[in-house]
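Problem statement: downstream parser choked on a complex file, so we are re-checking the raw output for the zinc ion run. The parser issue turned out to be on our end (a line-ending mismatch), but while we're here, posting the original submission so the record is complete.
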Amino acid sequence: MKSYRKELFFNVPARSGFVNITTEVEKCVKESGIKEGLALVNSMHITSSVFINDNEQGLHHDYDVWLEKLAPHAPVSRYRHNDTGEDNAEAHLKRQVMGREVVVAVTQGELDFGTWEQIFYGEFDGRRRKRVLVKIIGE
Ligand code: ZN
């Protein structure tokens, strides 16, 4: 069995944002030389997510509105986590809803997606450099 590991770096210039990382993960699959296996992609931070969905701007706007309704950033005093002096409690909650990782099958050297599936990095506490792990195993 072959194994491949790579860290991808993102620095989203705003508090939150979505980045399509599909092309970067596809590059990893090529680099790995693995033809049949599994690709795991996970955020290495507890205030950002990796998820699969549609590459459609309206949907991304809808996520923003929905997540802000579920867990508004302000007032920061509403969250016990922020008693520690942080202001990112809501980013932890948003990360939980949007998920930590995705696993995609690798078939004939390609990510084996459904028709509209794309991989996104979801940032909820940005303006700093953060990491995403790509681990691919197979033959
Ligand atoms: Zn925190």
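For whoever reads this later: Residues 2-138 form a domain with the Jelly Rolls fold (CATH 2.60.120.460).
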